[in-house]
Amino acid sequence: MSLENKNAIIYGAGGSIGGAVARTFARRGARVFLTGRTPESLEKVAGEITAAGGRAEVAVVDALDEKAVEAHAQAVADQAGSLDVSINLVTRGDVQGTPLTDMTTADFLRPVVTGLTTNFVTARTAARHMAAQGSGVILTLNSGSAQASPMMGGTGPADATMDTLVRNLAIEMGPRGVRVVGIWTAGLPETLSREKLAAVNPGLALDEAAFQGLLAQLDQMRMLRRSPTLSQIAGTAAFLASEDAGAITGTFVNATGGIFPG
Fold first, then answer.
1. SS3 2
2. What is the pLDDT of the chain when averaged over all its residues?
């Protein structure tokens, strides 16, 4: 599961999942290029990687800005010699917990527009470089809510657009040596806090006991009766980026702990 000599761009690398993926990729030998909109969080992750002996570089890039994404990817390819892995972990501004009949159009459409736009821009940019070199892996992640999740607002439709993008891009890029794969996961306890939940679901005011009860409920919703860990999701991404997963493309890996079959 080595990523030696691989150059990887991680969009949204300053977040909880992005940071875990970046550290895991670097630990397995990849040179990682961390992007996001908040330099402080990116520098923190980069510092942890370099302190552990890895290679990490930081750039402030808005994944909604096509020209900025393209310029950064070109700079990476010119500097490193190739672009081997691209993974999009950019947040979308989802609003949840509100019935669809009470939700504003803006709140419903935000994750759809933001998620599809950033994934299209970053995947298209990577695909062009990878097609020219005849190899590469494009990865993304969503919650799998396209399987049907009530009270999730625009999350389900947003996930559905990403699912379709992955499958269609994989069909087009497969003959050119490029794999396109996604990961489904949701409700990682290490990424949750009362404050983060309230930001997504303004009607969810939890004290500490209720918050711990919610985490326990998440465990019980899964076939495995336990939630995935950040380490497991980062390891899944590293596996999919490696040659060990060379036969996998055009699909999503269900890393939800079994919230739904598929």
1. coil
2. 94
